[in-house]
Each structure stands twice: as C-alpha cells, then as structure tokens.
Design brief:
Shape: globular
Helix content: 10-25%
Number of helices: 4
Number of strands: 13
Oligomer: single chain
Largest sheet: 8 strands, mixed
Strand content: 25-35%
Length: 178
C-alpha cells in the first residue's frame, strides 16, 4: 500500500523542512504556510529569472526508499531533510508519468515533473549530490530527489494517509525537471 510517511512545512526558504502533524494543501497555491506556496514561482533562483512564471513546484514529494538507498551508501537522511513536503512509501514516484494524480485523503496533487537537485545538498552532507544527480552508463542524467506537483484539490494530509495513484490517459510522457 502506498502511504504518507511524513509531512513537512517551513515558512522560510530553509534547506530542510521540519516534520509537522499535518499540512493543508490549498488548490492552485500549494502547502499553506510553506515558503514555496503561491501561484507563481517561489524558489528564490527562479524568482530572480522571472517572478511571474506559474508555480509548477507547489508540492515536493520524495520517496522514503531513497533514504534507505542512501543509507546503504553511508548517508543519513531522514524525512524532511531534503526539503520535501510529503515523504511517501510504496509508490515509485520517479517512474510516474507527467499528469499523474495522487489522491491523499481529500487532496489531489498532479505531478508536474522531477525535482532538479541543487548544490546545497552537498552543504547538507558532502558528496550527497552525486548520489541523487548523476550520469548513468547510457549517458543519461538521472535525478533521484523526488517529484514536484501542483495542488488540484485542497485538503489536509497527515502521516499514515493512503496514497491512490491515477495515471493520466495514454500516451504517457516521462517526467522532466521543472
């Protein structure tokens, strides 16, 4: 069963987000009270480029299975440490196509793309960036640091909530960085 492992929110543009008891998703906005919520981009480097760009990064989801993989490589990463709003378990978020709808309690998140990890990950733990962003043997760039989405229907999300995955109609398009 796919489920929510933890929810995280921060009013500041800090790297990690503290775990909270629940988050409120607001349709078209994102996580209430989170620094990245809004109809237009909120990520500081993107605001500098074009502050009127629509926010396709309202909610950041990351799979707990990544933390387990990183632990095998000697890294200690816990839910919220890499700045996600929702930590998941039991769903391969990186394999979902664009437009997948994730239903969690009454809320719906539409997946828009991959998170493109930044150099700040190395400030958190040296060498971690090359574990979540690298080139594979086929010369393809691999990004493992979760997916981004928009809130299509608001609601409250808590740890333990079940996640239902609804794929979009075919053809399916692979996720790219947003």
């Amino acid at each position: 069963m796919a489920s929510v492992v933890g929810v995280h929110q921060s009013e500041t543009h800090s790297f990690s987000k503290p775990t909270v008891g629940e988050i409120t998703l607001v349709e078209g906005i994102g996580v209430a009270g989170d620094a990245h919520s809004g109809t237009t981009v909120q990520h500081l480097s993107r605001v500098k480029k074009n502050a009127s760009t629509p926010n396709m990064r309202q909610v950041h989801l990351m799979h707990r299975e990544l933390f387990e993989q990183l632990a095998r490589d000697g890294y200690s990463v816990s839910p919220g440490d890499l700045g996600e709003n929702i930590t998941t378990s039991g769903v391969d978020v990186l394999a979902l196509p664009v437009g997948t709808r994730l239903m969690i309690a009454d809320a719906v998140i539409t997946v828009t793309g991959l998170r493109n990890p930044c150099f700040q990950i190395n400030d958190f733990q040296p060498g971690l960036l090359k574990k979540v962003l690298f080139t594979n043997d086929d010369g393809e760039t691999v990004r493992l640091s979760g997916v981004m989405g928009i809130v299509s229907r608001g609601g409250v999300v808590r740890s333990g909530d079940e996640i239902t995955v609804a794929l979009p109609p075919e053809p399916h398009y692979p996720l790219t960085p947003v």
